[in-house]
Design a protein that fits this description.
alpha/beta, Nucleotidyltransferase, domain 5, 2 domains, 7-stranded mixed sheet, 33% helix, globular, Carbohydrate kinase, FGGY_C_2
C-alpha cells in the first residue's frame, strides 16, 4: 500500500535546521530539527559548517524515505539569504560558507561604489543599503579581488537555498528571491544584473536564473519526486499571503527584526527611504516588494529585561498584562517620538508600576513601527495589514497598531511554519492534486479604541 502523498521542506535557519513533511492539506505530519556547531573560516571568523549541513540533508532524506507511511512527491528548500557557496566543475565547495556578518574591506566597497556613481546612487539602483558582506554580491567581488585563483576555478556561485537544491537535483540555478534580497547584484530599473556585475565578469559565475516555482528531476536513479529551486526565507514567508489575498495588503513579519513587506508598491526607492533602511525584495516570480526594517523585536527583548530588573520581577510577567486604556491615555501625550531607541532613554522611576512601564514600552515600539511601515505604503493605500510572528500574539501591541492604521483592517495572522509552507505552496501544482486550501492562515481582527 502506498503512503500518503507529502512534500518535504528543508527550512535552514542560522540556528535551527528543520525538515518538515506536509500532507496535501498542508498539515505537518513529520518534523525533525537539528543544530550544528559553527566552524571557522581561514581568518578565524565563525561560519556555517557546510559539510555538516550537506550530510544532514542526505541523512534526513534517507530517514524519511525509509518510512513507508509517506510517499514523497517533491522536495524544496528555504534558507537565510546573503550567503554564497562557490562550486567547482565537480560541484564541490571551494571555500567555507562565509558569514554575512564578516567584516568587509572598506576600501574594496568604496572602490566599487566610486566606479558606479557613488554609494548613494549605487544603493538606489540596486535597492540595497550599504551593508558590507550582507550585500552578498560584494562577497563574490571580494573573492575575485582577494582570491583570483578561487575565482578562476569557480564554475558557479550559488546562494545557499540553491546549493541545497543542487545537492538533490544536481542542477545549478539562481532564483529571483535570493538575487533580490539586498545583494547589490540587481538593477531594479533595468530588471537585469547591474552593469558592475557584467563588467567584472561575475555574471559568468552566476548560474542561470529560473522562476521560483520551477521543479527539476532528482539525480537519484529510479526516483520520481520533483526538486524545487529553493527560496530566500523572507520571500518564502510572503507566498501564502500572495496566494490567498489579491487586494493590496502589507505584511509586517515580526521577530528580532520587524520587516514590513508591500508587494503592491514598486515605485522607485527615494533617498529618504533608503536612509531609513528601506529596500526591495523580489518575489519568486521576479516582481518587486518594497520593504522596511526595524530592529524592534530585539529592542523589546532588551527593554523588557530592563523593566523586569527595575521592578524585581521576571519577563514572563509581561505575557499576562492586559491593555489598560487609562494607562494609555495617561502616557500618550508624552509618547509621540517615533525613534526606536526612545524607551531606552526613559527613566523607569517615572512609572508607578510594572504594567505602566510595559505599556510605555509598547507605545514607543508601535510609534516606531507605524513610522517604519508608513515608509512603504503606496499612494493607493492598502486594505489590510497582516502581522505575523511574535508581536501578533501581543494584544497591547496589536490594538495600538490598529488604532494608528484607521484606513486599513489590521489582523494578527498565525500559520504554523509560514516560511516552510511558502516553499511547499510555490510548487503546489507539481505535487498536490487538491486545490490550495483557503484556511492555511488563521486571522484575528483587531480594532483600536476610537
Amino acid at each position: 500500500m502506498m503512503g500518503i502523498p507529502v512534500v518535504a521542506i528543508f527550512d535552514v535557519g542560522k540556528t535551527n535546521k528543520k525538515l518538515f513533511l506536509f500532507n496535501e492539506h498542508y498539515q505537518i505530519v513529520f518534523e525533525k530539527s537539528a543544530r550544528f556547531l559553527e566552524t571557522e573560516d581561514e581568518d578565524g571568523d565563525p561560519c556555517e559548517n557546510l559539510e555538516s549541513l550537506r550530510l544532514s540533508v542526505f541523512d534526513s532524506l534517507h530517514e524519511v524515505f525509509r518510512r513507508t507511511e509517506f510517499d514523497i512527491k517533491a522536495i524544496n528548500f528555504t534558507s537565510y539569504g546573503a550567503s554564497f557557496v562557490y562550486l567547482n566543475d565537480s560541484g564541490h565547495p571551494l571555500t567555507p560558507l562565509y558569514n554575512y556578518l564578516k567584516q568587509y574591506p572598506q576600501e574594496l566597497e568604496k572602490d566599487l561604489h566610486v566606479k558606479y556613481g557613488g554609494a548613494e546612487q549605487f544603493s538606489l539602483t540596486t535597492a540595497s543599503p550599504s551593508l558590507g558582506s550582507l550585500n552578498s554580491g560584494l562577497q563574490v567581488y571580494r573573492i575575485k579581488n582577494e582570491k583570483p585563483d578561487v575565482f578562476e576555478q569557480m564554475k558557479y556561485a550559488v546562494h545557499l537555498p540553491q546549493y541545497l537544491s543542487f545537492l538533490v537535483s544536481g542542477q545549478m540555478y539562481s532564483d529571483m528571491t535570493s538575487i533580490g534580497c539586498h545583494t547589490a547584484l540587481w538593477d531594479f530599473d533595468a530588471k537585469d544584473y547591474h552593469q558592475w556585475v557584467k563588467d567584472t565578469g561575475i555574471t559568468q559565475k552566476l548560474a542561470p536564473i529560473v522562476q521560483g516555482d520551477e521543479v527539476f528531476p532528482a539525480t537519484f536513479p529510479g526516483s520520481t519526486y520533483k526538486v524545487g529551486v529553493g527560496l530566500h526565507d523572507s520571500s518564502s514567508a510572503l507566498i501564502p499571503y500572495l496566494l490567498n489575498f489579491h487586494e493590496p495588503f502589507v505584511l509586517i513579519s515580526t521577530g528580532t527584526w520587524c520587516i514590513s513587506l508591500n508587494p503592491f508598491n514598486d515605485s522607485p526607492l527615494t533617498k529618504e527611504q533608503l536612509d531609513k533602511d528601506c529596500l526591495f525584495y523580489l518575489t519568486y516570480a521576479g516582481t518587486p516588494v518594497k520593504a522596511s526594517r526595524l530592529f524592534a523585536g530585539y529592542e523589546h527583548e532588551v527593554q523588557t529585561k530592563r523593566i523586569a530588573e527595575h521592578f524585581n520581577t521576571t519577563t514572563a510577567r509581561f505575557k499576562s498584562i492586559e491593555i489598560d486604556w487609562s494607562i494609555i491615555d495617561k502616557l500618550k501625550e508624552e509618547n509621540s517620538s517615533t525613534s526606536l531607541d526612545t524607551f531606552s532613554k526613559r527613566d523607569l522611576s517615572q512609572y508607578a508600576h510594572v504594567a505602566e512601564a510595559y505599556h510605555g514600552l509598547v507605545i514607543d515600539l508601535v510609534n516606531a513601527q507605524v513610522e517604519s511601515t508608513r515608509l512603504i505604503l503606496s499612494a493607493q493605500g492598502v486594505k489590510r495589514i497582516f502581522v505575523d510572528g511574535g508581536f501578533s500574539k501581543n494584544n497591547i501591541y496589536m490594538t495600538l497598531l490598529a488604532r494608528e492604521f484607521t484606513d486599513a483592517e489590521v489582523y494578527a495572522a498565525s500559520m504554523a511554519q509560514a516560511t516552510a509552507i511558502g516553499a511547499a505552496l510555490v510548487i503546489h501544482q507539481h505535487w498536490n492534486s487538491h486545490p490550495i486550501p483557503n484556511d492555511i492562515i488563521e486571522l484575528r481582527y483587531f480594532r483600536g479604541r476610537s
